[in-house]
Amino acid sequence: MSQPVVLITGVGGGIGSATAQRFKAQGWSVLGVDLTPPKTDLGMDAFFQGDVAQTDFWEDVAGTLAAQMTVIHGLVNNAATQVCKPLLETTVDEWDKVMAVNLRSVYLAVRHLFPLMRGVRGAIVNVSSVHALATSSGIAAYAASKGGLLALTRALALELADEGIRVNTDLPGAVETPMLRAGLSRGHLLGSQIEEQMTALGNQHPMKRVGQPDEIAQAIYFLAEGTQSSFITGQSLVVDGGAIAHLSTE
To answer: Which one is catalytic: 23, 48, 57, 142?
Structure first.
């Protein structure tokens, strides 16, 4: 039997890279997508460089894979961008870019790759965020896009069920990635140095630390692989060290 194939967007980021390595370690063929090539060797079988928010990019990817008779068993929509500004200071261009990368890209990926997923009873995992459920100030566009991704996931789960394709969402909390470090610039945590802020953020969690990319990758793999998640679709799996379980008034 040939290797199952997964396509992962945002493969160059912290969670994306860890996810690629997790699938590869489990014997999958990994296809990566990102705006720039990853800085480390992830052992990918193919890499597609381009803007996930653009229709022509996905037309090219789907055309290339179809010509190679590639079948997609798993699709991980992980690509994301973030604007750390109050809503009233967020420009229209910034808002549109966040929506395009975080939400429009998922629509485009599913629409163009669906023909390659039909008949294999595969899975789609959309990487959202705890900001879809509980958020903070200065990150409105990101929170809105990730909330929209939850609704899109539920809709896709219904539409694709007859094709045997499961669709679920993984909601990471604070994970030690370049995006998290950039987000600390909002100045909402005590400490003048990034490491001090990271420690302060971790201490706000019941588990007294932030997460690591591979911990999210394991959850993504669980939802995509299907051996233990075969009856799960249209659901959201929160991986946040207990952060949103904690009452903020305590």
So the answer is: 142
